[in-house]
Amino acid sequence: MSTPDLTAFVKAYDVRGLVGSQLTPEVVEALAAGFVDELGAAGSPVIVGHDMRDSSPEFAAAFARGASARGAEVVSIGLCSTDETYFASGFLDAPAAMFTASHNPASYNGIKFSRAGAQGISLGTGLAAIRDRAQAYLASGGVPSVEQPGGVVVRDVLADYAAHLRSLVDLSGIRPLRVVVDAGNGMGGMTVPAVLGTAAGLPELPLEIIPLYFELDGTFPNHEANPLEPENLVDLQRAVVAHGADLGLAFDGDADRCFVVDETGAPVTPSAVAAIVARREVARVRAAGETGDVFVIHNLITSRFVPESITAAGAIPVRTNVGHSLIKDRMRETDAVFGGEHSAHYYFRDFWGADNGMLAAMHLLAEFGGQDAPLSAFASAYDPYALSGEINSVVEDVPAAYTRIVEAFARRGDFDELDGLTVTGHPERGFWWFNVRPSNTEPLLRLNVEADTAEQMAIVRDEVLALIRA
């Protein structure tokens, strides 16, 4: 049997591959061994958790074998969300591995690695070395055991996780809210009843949760667990209207991202959620006595209103590239209190700088539930501009497309290349900007546009798309 090329599915920030042809128990054992060796974790605890995919328990067991063979003391937390693994990594101050392919179809699985304290690992900060160590183990026939291999203990952290989130956001005093939650047959079906309900033994909140697809099922029988795609929000939108709910929440497969719809079923942009949470987090730390500079991170694809609201709250916005491991690093470098991405990843200093969609949802519920307006009116104040959303185009010759865009907009805007190409219109011609970024893994260009009016946004969007697709 040939040795698989791990470079094909060890990605920039995680491992993501096809079950059987790429990810196998032997590959997972080798990656676990490489992880323990690279982090020097022999004799120390290493956490492993997994989602509800059919292949996940077998892979988690294979990881435990590989890690313990190299001397780690494995702490198995079993079925969990990705942010629950981050909690365990921070709470126990130990490195962790989470088996999930997030929103990918059932034929995929993957691994999200963390250093102790939920610190991210990317290709540039250790993942490439883990990959290369694993590749060497596979080439040599398997993982050798150290003289003193580690053991495996089982620990349930769901109740601790739920209690920790409740300690960060108090929802006990909000007005009663009816909330439809679409878990997409993913891990939100387990974490929502624990955090927002009473399944973990916590007091009842003034929330009526109407569940949609809470049954854990890694085949995703109802729709893909990817709320970023509009077709996967349709069931939630219909249910919110049918039940006369105040809002709807949709979680992705591993429940680390959360999307919001208002009482009419219209999506609330992740940028609006980021602006709401940023304002709350800045106010919280100021009330707690922080007097120095307070930093809040946003990636360059979020609405311009996000940095505007951060500044208005008396904090300093920090603009970054797209990418969760990079943002985790910037959270630590700046000691930022919060970070938000256009893709509905939300990062919290009080959660070890890691992302947590549930915590963002709780902040939204607290802020919205503390006033009387419907969500459509409440959220509109945080969404004053027109956003295109991300539009993908298949492009074989990316440099040629870039050249066309640069030539067309050379005298009409300012350019920067923090991540891809961003062009910001000259102020005298009205507010607009667009960003074009190449995909790391596919022949795609990703376009995002924002303007002060929907009409202006459409004009810029259509012109840039024509240049991209010429």
TrEMBL record:
Q: Spell out the coiled coil positions from the record.
A: none
Instruction: Give the UniProt record's GO annotations in the biological process aspect.
Output: carbohydrate metabolic process
SUPFAM superfamilies found in the cross-reference section: Phosphoglucomutase, C-terminal domain, Phosphoglucomutase, first 3 domains
Entry cofactors: Mg(2+)
Q: Which Gene3D superfamilies match?
A: Alpha-D-Glucose-1,6-Bisphosphate, subunit A, domain 3 (3.40.120.10), Alpha-D-phosphohexomutase, C-terminal domain (3.30.310.50)
- Chain ranges of the Alpha-D-phosphohexomutase C-terminal domain: 390-465
Native organism is: Protaetiibacter intestinalis
Query: What does the sequence similarity comment in the record state about its family?
Result: Belongs to the phosphohexose mutase family.
Return the protein name.
Answer: Phosphomannomutase/phosphoglucomutase
Q: Which GO terms describe its molecular function?
A: intramolecular phosphotransferase activity; metal ion binding
Every Alpha-D-phosphohexomutase alpha/beta/alpha domain range:
11-119, 160-265, 272-383
Which of UniProt's keywords are assigned here? Isomerase, Magnesium, Metal-binding, Phosphoprotein
